[in-house]
């Protein structure tokens, strides 16, 4: 008998470690022989800790399980949820990037290979670099960190650059509130990210990779660090990838609590040991990146999607999605929501279907007021925009962005003016300080919103002006996109911005 | 009465620096290791690091002060980090922080007078589907409540 108790941070935050200990203790007391596997999470956070029992060819789920439920679990008297694959939230998904997360022992390379792992890399090792790029372009894969830049074009720029040394940098800074897909992937299927980075390295001629992993994720740091050691011991990393390939090795580096270090040039400065100040572009990191060398900077999900593209072929991947948003997106549903978690699906699902149907509306049972999509720099989408299909261009057309695909749900008690103020405050706290529109603008933004709240009608156009300056004049999207949450809250919910608002209209 | 910062021995500083100089871009790993070893980055380390990495003291100090993680003085015996970001706000995160801070009688970044608990803000722990989220001495907590977060204060005082 095998018992799966997730070691995912969200499962642990809800008591998974205590459950795992109780299972071990109880099994020993009963003289039962069973194997405990600390897997990743299946992504249904409202059911965590979600425990699975595998016996006589079936794998049944239970959850949420508390330590006190363990005797009944082992007696076989606890109510089961059935197979995970049959739970509607899971059954509706198309899992490509997350195919293995929660299924496997994250540290078993044998499990990894048994479920399609390394098939992509083996194919790539037999291909010419140019052909790899062509296939990546054909897959339509766009950067999952937020900007949605085509991965194939970025890789090709680095591949064509001449240099004595090139780097692959994985952006695992995942600072956006409401996002946790990078974390879940790293904790649940670390070899997938490693394989994606090796494919990138082999393709562009880079020999060294770094994962810049935020310090707020101690569990992911632990899992990734061990996985890198295991990969090295197994020859997946080292002087000759899988015995015959070129050299590639990698290191895990830990961030230090600065949101702006998720911005790629700030991240590179941080890796170099400097203040995480944003660099002006050009030069592009692809040409002058880490230590001035050509560098691929990609998000965790971008890199972790590469293996399945080469395992199943670009056509398979591109057959999912909508318009220029090809493939699938691991969407994260969070905040005040009945069924929160990770939902990977082809691009194109309307926002309202995600929020109401898939996630079951709010946890409080009150009406949804707005959802913020794309992190602290994303717009608040009122329910009137719930028919917007989940896609890069589609959200852009509605004055929003999908960013890293975090969807944070708020019920009707949300204070929209307070959230707008928070967006400015956050920008002020996290600004790297290099450009004035962001550094000073955000501070003025807080003051201006306070003036509006105090009843000063003249401050409304001032706030709109200020947002325009920040949008057009900031060096990076921290200052540049803070106007999204602020203006979307102001325009979607003007009545909440103090008594002055009516007068100003 | 706050915990007195013990002056780390110069050999201890040198040992940590030595262990990292082979890395590309060793400064952040060194600072993390210092904080891990001493609970903060000692001021006496700044000139030593600067010399070893051929940087100015101002540069090293600039890096330490840029990042929220690095402390220049020790924290309390326990550290509680409470998420202030939007997903946690959507389920009462702000009220939770207020309750914890007022119960302990301190503000953000402060330590209780008995040195038991320091409370710090954090912007997202990636636990947004089981918010409000917190971290206590490095251990994650979902659907956090004020009682569980202040339990440590009692322990520390006992
Ligand atoms: C303030 C700010 C924070 C960002 N944070 C992240 C982050 O945490 N993770 C990430 O992958 N990209 C983040 N980005 C986007 C990166 O700058 C960059 O576009 C991305 O790493 C490129 O990888 P991709 O093409 O695979 O998306 C951020 C951008 C800004 C302006």
TrEMBL record, chain A:
PROSITE patterns: COMPLEX1_51K_1 (PS00644), COMPLEX1_51K_2 (PS00645). Residues 417-462 form the NADH-ubiquinone oxidoreductase 51kDa subunit iron-sulphur binding domain. Keywords: 4Fe-4S, Iron, Iron-sulfur, Metal-binding. Its cofactor is [4Fe-4S] cluster; FMN. InterPro entries: NADH-UbQ_OxRdtase_51kDa_CS, Nuo51_FMN-bd, Nuo51_FMN-bd_sf, Nuop51_4Fe4S-bd, Nuop51_4Fe4S-bd_sf, Thioredoxin-like_sf. The keyword 4Fe-4S applies. The keyword Ribonucleoprotein does not apply. GO terms for molecular function: 4 iron, 4 sulfur cluster binding; FMN binding; metal ion binding; NADH dehydrogenase (ubiquinone) activity. SMART domains: NADH_4Fe-4S. It holds the Pfam family Complex1_51K. Belongs to the complex I 51 kDa subunit family. This is Formate dehydrogenase beta subunit. It comes from Allosediminivita pacifica.
From TrEMBL, chain B:
Binds 1 [2Fe-2S] cluster. Coiled coil: none annotated. GO terms for molecular function: 2 iron, 2 sulfur cluster binding; metal ion binding; oxidoreductase activity. InterPro entries: NADP_DH_HndA-like (IPR028431), NuoE-like (IPR002023), NuoE_N (IPR041921), Thioredoxin-like_sf (IPR036249). Keywords: 2Fe-2S, Iron, Iron-sulfur, Metal-binding. SUPFAM superfamilies: Thioredoxin-like. [2Fe-2S] cluster binds at residues 83, 88, 124, 128. Its cofactor is [2Fe-2S] cluster. Gene3D superfamilies: Glutaredoxin, NADH-quinone oxidoreductase subunit E. Belongs to the complex I 24 kDa subunit family. NCBIfam families: PRK05988.1. This is Formate dehydrogenase gamma subunit. It comes from Allosediminivita pacifica.
């Amino acid at each position: 008998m095998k018992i799966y108790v997730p070691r995912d941070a969200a499962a642990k935050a809800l008591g998974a470690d205590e459950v795992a200990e109780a299972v071990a203790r109880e099994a020993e007391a009963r003289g039962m022989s069973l194997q405990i596997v600390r897997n990743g999470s299946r992504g249904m956070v409202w059911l965590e800790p979600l425990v699975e029992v595998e016996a006589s060819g079936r794998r049944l789920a239970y959850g949420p399980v508390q330590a006190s439920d363990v005797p009944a679990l082992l007696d076989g008297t606890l109510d089961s949820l059935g197979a995970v694959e049959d739970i509607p939230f899971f059954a509706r998904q198309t899992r490509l990037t997350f195919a293995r997360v929660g299924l496997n022992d994250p540290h078993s390379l044998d499990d990894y290979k048994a479920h399609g792992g390394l098939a992509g890399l083996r194919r790539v090792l037999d291909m010419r670099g140019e052909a790899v790029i062509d296939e990546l372009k054909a897959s339509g894969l766009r950067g999952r960190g937020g900007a949605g830049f085509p991965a194939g074009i970025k890789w090709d720029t680095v591949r064509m650059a001449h240099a004595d040394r090139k780097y692959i940098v994985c952006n695992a800074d995942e600072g956006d509130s409401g996002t946790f897909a990078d974390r879940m992937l790293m904790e649940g299927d670390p070899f997938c990210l490693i394989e994606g980075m090796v494919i990138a390295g082999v393709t562009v001629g880079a020999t060294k990779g770094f994962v810049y992993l935020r310090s707020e994720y101690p569990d992911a740091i632990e899992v990734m660090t061990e996985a890198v050691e295991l990969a090295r011991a197994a020859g997946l990393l080292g002087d000759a990838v899988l015995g015959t390939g070129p050299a590639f090795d990698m290191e895990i580096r830990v961030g230090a609590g600065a949101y702006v270090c998720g911005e790629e040039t700030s991240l590179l400065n941080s890796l170099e040991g400097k203040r995480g100040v944003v660099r002006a572009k050009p030069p592009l990191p692809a040409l002058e990146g880490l230590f001035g060398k050509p560098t691929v900077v990609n998000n965790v999900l971008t890199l972790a999607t590469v293996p399945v593209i080469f395992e199943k072929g670009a056509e398979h991947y591109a057959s999912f999605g909508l318009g220029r948003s090809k493939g699938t997106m691991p969407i994260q549903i969070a905040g005040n929501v009945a069924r929160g978690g990770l939902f990977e699906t082809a691009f194109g699902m309307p926002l309202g279907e995600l929020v109401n149907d898939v996630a079951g509306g709010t946890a409080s049972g009150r009406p949804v007021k707005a959802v913020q999509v794309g992190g602290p720099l994303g717009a608040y989408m009122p329910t009137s925009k719930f028919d917007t299909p989940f896609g890069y261009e589609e959200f852009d057309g509605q004055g929003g962005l999908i960013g890293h695909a975090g969807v944070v749900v708020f019920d009707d008690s949300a204070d929209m003016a307070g959230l707008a103020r928070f967006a400015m405050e956050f920008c002020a706290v996290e600004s790297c300080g290099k450009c004035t529109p962001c550094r000073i603008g955000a501070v003025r933004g807080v003051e201006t919103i306070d003036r509006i709240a105090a009843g000063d009608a003249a401050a409304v156009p001032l706030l709109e002006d200020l947002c325009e300056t920040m949008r057009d004049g900031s060096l990076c999207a921290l200052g540049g996109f803070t106007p999204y949450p602020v203006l979307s809250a102001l325009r979607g919910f003007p009545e909440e911005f103090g008594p002055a608002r009516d007068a100003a209209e | 009465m706050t915990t007195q910062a013990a002056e780390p021995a110069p050999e201890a500083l040198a040992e940590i620096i030595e262990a990292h100089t082979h890395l590309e871009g060793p400064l952040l790993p060194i600072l993390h290791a210092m904080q891990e070893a001493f609970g903060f980055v000692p001021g006496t380390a700044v000139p030593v690091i600067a010399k070893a990495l051929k940087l100015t003291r101002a540069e090293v100090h600039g890096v330490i002060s840029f990042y929220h993680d690095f402390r220049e003085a020790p924290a309390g015996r326990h550290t509680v980090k409470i998420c202030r970001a939007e997903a946690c706000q959507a389920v009462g995160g702000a009220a939770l922080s207020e309750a914890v801070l007022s119960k302990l009688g301190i503000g953000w970044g402060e330590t209780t007078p008995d040195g038991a608990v320091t409370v710090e803000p954090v912007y997202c722990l990636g636990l947004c589907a089981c918010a409000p989220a917190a971290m206590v001495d490095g251990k994650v907590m979902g659907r956090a409540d004020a009682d569980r977060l202040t339990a440590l204060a009692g322990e520390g005082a006992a």
